[in-house]
Amino acid sequence: MSGGKGKDMEKTFWYKDAVIYQIWPRSFKDADGDGVGDLMGVYEKLDYLKSLHVDAIWFSPLYPSPNADFGYDVADYMDISAEYGGMAAFKKVLDGAHERGIRVIMDLVVNHTSDEHPWFQASRRGEEPYKDYYIWRKPKKDGTLPNNWDSMFEGKAWQYDEVRKAYYLHIFAIKQPDLNMDNPRVRAEVKKILRFWLDMGVDGFREDVITYISKPKGLPDAPFYMPMARGIFQYNNGPHLHEYLNEFRTVLDDYDCVTIGEAPLITTKRALDFIGGKHPELDMMIPFQCMEGDCFLQDYSHHPFCLVKLKTIWQHWQKALRGKGWNLLYIENHDHPRVISRYGSEKYNTESGKALAASYLFQEGTPIVYQGQEIGMTNIYPETIDGYEDVQTINQYYHFATHKSEKKRMQRIYWGSRDSARTPVQWSDAPNAGFTTGTPWFAVNENYPQINVAAQENDPDSLLNFYREALRLRHELPVVRYGTFRQYYPLSNKLFVYERRAKRERLLVICSYSVNPVKFKAPRGYDLQKGQLLLQSHTDYIENNGFVTQPYETRVYLFRDEEKKE
Ligand code: GLC
């Protein structure tokens, strides 16, 4: 691979031309038949990823973990879980990916560890140098908890430890104690971890809840209540966050690598604090707001999908970051229900999947495609909470609307559960969707006989082949990389129409979010007859310089303006 390392290394910004594919390893592909996805399963599918025009894989955590939060509870930062095939399998995948020109991005989870990490075990026994690796507090004088913060995943944010005879802070699950980043030894560990993977040839990191790592002095109470997030305004964007990120940057600067920050509640203004300026701390931020097309801040705080809201958010990120910071584009990941089930239509799966794909893939920035998104995987609807595995989902169930009917509680779970995006990838119509020959660790969506990779490979009009072509075009068309962004009909709640313009090239993307016919008329300055229709979901018919849309109709036109004669 190009790039390199060492003090004289030139950063190549390769990520600006890249398409990233996110793998949540447990559910991607099982090669050894134990029912759990693994790295040899990934190895088998590297050519598939290449055929999708993917340039980089971001792996959700692969480290040894007791799986209280499926890998986001790390028990050893410098190894690969045996369940996934261990280090040998990882190196095979790393080499196999690099041979195909695909880079590898790891998940860096350093806000917390697993309680089974040896650091925590030593810390609870009060052993040096680990004694202050975590955030330990005695109860208040009146015997109450050290502060009023809530855990996002389980009850209060404090757990009493019988060995240490003190409380430790856990913003996430009880089994995910927060690290004390104010301890220089902990920061030295983080730098060691970065070097370990970068020296092995890894190409970057997605940094998990990175804006939580610096806790405020005195850990003050939160002044107001926020369901399952009381305290977030205290610990998010803490006082030393930038200082610590700059410290980590001293390592990262020695390598041609990418860093992606996960920052809940992020705004464009705040994003630029990390990714703007001459020597940014991170390269890209995950734009959480694009998940708010049907909710407020959190997926479970549901409201009906509003296209205008979503378009406004997209436009805002496009405009605010232009020339100042580089956008990251996504519509799915392992923390949200499937997007067709939210913003599109399960009935019009292929059609709405295409509209969603074209809506974001031609914007400025680096897109991420989440496993299964490219074939239009949808949510699951188990009858009871027992059908779920995720700690956050289960917490939400016991927390929410306990006075309401079971049906209402489950509805909230359908709106919010991350497990909907964690069902095994549907490779074929073979038993268990071809994911495993064993018993899958988690439910396979029952629609797999209809929705699967093999069926879509053979269908030129499939969503899979639409993604493939869209990603190929992204690489081919400089206007997608450099063009300006402009939206047309911003107040339409049925159409998303945007233009990318660079020099003499213009791209016009038209996506309907309606099953009903909508009259589309080309914006001023566009003659559809003169455009080249690069991608389409239905027909190419044009009438009166426009057309009446079919359900979720999508078209992408390219216009090459003639050179002006002097
Ligand atoms: C991030 C991850 C999520 C995880 C949490 C705690 O939000 O994306 O999956 O549960 O952090 O690590």
What does this molecule look like?
- With 566 residues, the chain is an alpha/beta fold.
- 27% of the residues lie in helices and 15% in strands.
- The chain contains 16 helices and 20 strands.
- It has helices at 39-44, 46-51, 86-99, 118-124, 184-200, 232-235, 241-252, 268-275, 307-321, 339-343, 349-361, 391-399, 406-416, 453-457, 463-476, 478-482; strands spanning 20-23, 56-59, 103-108, 136-137, 158-161, 166-169, 204-207, 258-261, 284-285, 295-296, 298-302, 328-329, 366-370, 484-488, 495-502, 505-512, 519-521, 532-536, 546-548, 554-560.
- The strands form 5 sheets. An 8-stranded parallel sheet has the order 9-8-7-3-2-1-13-12. A 5-stranded antiparallel sheet has the order 14-15-16-20-18. Strands 4-6-5 form a 3-stranded antiparallel sheet, with no helix packed on it.
- α3 (86-99) links the parallel β2 and β3.
- α5 runs parallel beside α7 (241-252) and α11 runs parallel beside α15 (463-476).
- The site of alpha-D-glucopyranose has 9 residues, from loops.
